[in-house]
Amino acid sequence: MFEAFQNIFKIPELKKRVLFSLGMLAVYRVGCHIPTPGIDRIALAHFFKQSQGTLLGMFDMFSGGALERLTVFALGIMPYISSSIIFQLLTVVVPAIEKLSKEGDAGRKKIIQYTRYGTVVLSVVQGLGIAVGLESMRGPAGELVVPAPGWGFRIMTVITLTAGTAFIMWLGEQMSEKGIGNGISLIIFAGIVVRMPSAIGNTIKLLNAGQISLFVIIFIIAVMFAVVAAIVFVERGQRRLSIHYAKRVVGLKTFNAQTSHLPLKINMAGVIPPIFASSIIMFPATIANFINVPWVQNAAKSLSPGNLIYNIFFVAFIVFFCYFYTAVTFNPIDVAENIKRQGGYIPGIRPGKETSDFIDTVLTRLTFAGAIYISLVCVLPSILIGKFNLPFYFGGTALLIAVGVGMDTVSQIESHLITRNYEGFLKGVRIKGRR
């Protein structure tokens, strides 16, 4: 493994991509510590101490602590993800956008441009909601979180937070284009991983204070290792459909009969469903947390992790996005046509429509199993937080994203190494990412 890491720096292109991604992540982390003007930090910190284990704690986990400090990156990348969800749904509903999606790179660039505009609009709405909510918040001694409230503060906050989200969006796109891995996923990954030291420190403090027993700590660690093992096992799981190709004569060349496989992953959607589901729930609930109105506060509390309503919505959105994203990225009809065009067939299945129906049936069953697996993994942190009163929000959802993104990134690095005749990270083992 250490030799593989050394080989990364022997390939100029791969070295450049890895260093570029690390540099962009460093810029992102610096931005997470630049404060938004006009805020009383002490009063705000007191408010967030009361929000551990709530939806705000979960949102703060995705933003890498930027929301707790209300920095320029406080909104994180969630407005961009919400905008992406909206336009992917519109692709299915609106014929004009569906036509754009089928126009190749030109149409794809146009949809990306619309997604950027949508990100700015959502950031403005969410930033304004947070700004208005902050004006009504008070610290432990009754001091205002915003010493000088008014439209001047609101406009400054909206501009700052919106510019921060737009910059993060640009960072993610640059990492995807010039770096290694998916930039947006790596930003979320960085926000989750950076919270681990503080989570470990808080747990040790509670252990020393006697609020959590050593047995509970050992149990939590064992569960986390078991969840990681389950994620790695399922993410690498595949259902391979055997494809047979008859003997063909093309020009002067004769191709003998061949057999290959069509791999269908158990979790075709990867880490997208929990990210999308979290974004859908957090967008309205985050604004509600900052609005000091009784019925709004009650609605926000009902959507806090651990509550039955939250779990129902979370699981429902995960199942929906598992099927939706799989349908968007994998078309059984196109796959069946490509197999038929190349002279292939699935044993016992007629080429054409019957093949596409068979693939669709298998994929539907696999997606159902994948949706159940993701739901179980992602609901786990809510149970742990509720049962053991943990001082942080880090569990199944974070582990799924961290492990999934990590496997995908390592897989891409390994592909570069093997392409240039270098050994991968583990000799004789091919690391499979989500793609």
Instruction: Give the topology string: H per helix, E per strand.
Output: HHHHHHHHHHHHEEEEHHHHEHH
Mean pLDDT: 79
Strand order of the largest sheet: 4-1-5
Helix content: 55-70%
Briefly, what CATH class? Answer: Mainly Alpha
Binned strand content: 5-15%
Number of strands: 5
Number of helices: 18
How many individual domains?
1
The gross shape turns out to be: globular
Structural class by secondary-structure content: mainly alpha
The CATH superfamily is identified as SecY subunit domain
In the CATH scheme, what's the topology name? Preprotein translocase SecY subunit
CATH architecture: Orthogonal Bundle
C-alpha end-to-end distance: 22 Å
CA-atom Rg in angstroms: 24 Å
Low-confidence stretches: none
Note down, in words, how this protein is organized.
With 435 residues, this protein is mainly α. It has a single domain (2-419), classed as Orthogonal Bundle (Preprotein translocase SecY subunit), CATH 1.10.3370. 68% of the residues lie in helices and 6% in strands. It has helices at 2-8, 12-31, 41-49, 55-62, 66-69, 78-93, 95-101, 104-135, 151-178, 183-193, 196-208, 214-235, 272-289, 294-302, 308-329, 332-341, 353-388, 396-419; strands at residues 238-245, 248-250, 253-255, 258-265, 344-345. The strands form two sheets. A three-stranded antiparallel sheet has the order 4-1-5. It is globular and about 85 Å long.
Helices and strands in order, then pairings?
Blueprint: H1 2-8, H2 12-31, H3 41-49, H4 55-62, H5 66-69, H6 78-93, H7 95-101, H8 104-135, H9 151-178, H10 183-193, H11 196-208, H12 214-235, E1 238-245, E2 248-250, E3 253-255, E4 258-265, H13 272-289, H14 294-302, H15 308-329, H16 332-341, E5 344-345, H17 353-388, H18 396-419
Antiparallel strand pairs: 1-4, 1-5, 2-3
